[in-house]
Design goal:
about 50 residues; Ribosomal_zn-bd; mainly beta
Length: about 50
């Protein structure tokens, strides 16, 4: 079973990306380094509620 999640920048907290996550295999929150348009560089993006 997958759920749609939103990724937010850890520095500026802007919500830039959305993706799907399989909640039965990944229990912990997703953390990915992606490009933030607001910051203008690659930053850590975390799953939001």
């Amino acid at each position: 079973m997958s759920r749609k999640i939103t990724l937010a920048c850890a520095i500026c907290s802007s919500r830039n990306y959305s993706t799907n996550k399989n909640i039965s295999t990944q229990a912990e929150r997703l953390e990915v380094r992606k490009y933030c348009k607001t910051c203008g560089k690659h930053t850590l993006h975390r799953e939001t509620k």
